[in-house]
Amino acid sequence: MILGIDLGSTVFKTEIFDRDLRRLGRGAAPVVYAPSAGHAVEMPVEAAEEALRTAIRGALESAGCRPESLAAVAIASQAQTFAVRGPDGRAKGPFISWRDTRCEHDNPATALSDFSAHTSFASATSGLTVSKLAFLQGESSGTSIGSDDRILWLPTWFVEQFVGRAVVDDNLAAMSGLYSMRVGGWWPEALALCGIAPRQLPALVPLGTSAGLVCAAGERYGLRAGTPVVLGGNDQTAAAYSAGLHESDSVLIGLGTAQVVYATYPQMPAPTPGLLRGPYPGGRFYRLGADDWGSGTVSWACRTISGLADVKDFDRAVSVAPEDCHGVRFIADGPAGSGHWTGLDNPEATPDDQARAVIVTLVERMASMVAKLDAAGPVLLCGGGAESAPWRDILSRRLGVELVKMPDVSPSRGAARMVRDRLAARSSG
What we know:
By secondary structure, the chain is an alpha/beta fold.
């Protein structure tokens, strides 16, 4: 059996699979954030550790198995979130979340040249590790990073506790702004800006490879010493692997709280505005597009449009409204995936038109991202929004392709699949 771990931004999820990737059990624990002022978003280290222990224990109990039954552990995670560990082995503060925007208006990392050529991102946004590290080093609050401190991303923190050494895969490293895909290692200019040395960062390994074996210290998480730990990368990449994008030239569309598109390529694609890129398992590379307006927008619309009690009501409204929505248009320009409507002064306009206008806008935004991928092949569909028949129908007609709905696409399953494929390659070799 394989334990898959997904270190999400709201919930830590764990799942146990057999060799055929049939789910045998699952666990979960909510992520706890510390009260903070301003734009800080922080996760206490002790709370994160307890959450993971709880999630692992829940998966084992749900599957009715013992730690010694696990052939391997695979871990996928949110990117960017990191903590600083002092030379005494203790965290010097909480994890700083990727959602933290404390350097939004004072970001020294914007001075780095050729950013898109080196990293997964087109520019140094406030969410990136490089931005926050450079900001912290310039603060006068006493939070600067010492020469003997280590920078550990969320999955790296746990991997070090599991196996006794700090390791990160190139997929996650490239999303930090500190790793150069052009260099194939840590980016000297970015490290110099942050005032840190390569020895302060984890060892680099390819995505989908082993970080080592669980040591005695890892047993406090409910794992057995000697169990291999495999790095599953960023959660979006692991989810794509779960859908089998390494086996075909498919495009994966995720209709979750945000809309996501993902495709893989045999060579590193050129930087493209609005898309991320980076390493993918098996020597391939990916492009990723994300849009904050997705099923979260649908949930907001259900609360906002008169007469819609839930998603079922919303789907009914979308189905009965005419294609032209009686001239009603939805403008996606609000915070947290919200927006506003125009054309409501038309006497023929109804709440049904408002609902359909939302989906029409979401589909157009998705179609724009798909066009940027420059990828051909089957289009796979996953996420909560994939359960909406009218949304699927409108999207299919707009893209001019049949959509293949994928069951059970998840980061933990994708990380477990990397383990399964790694074991299969060893046995066949």
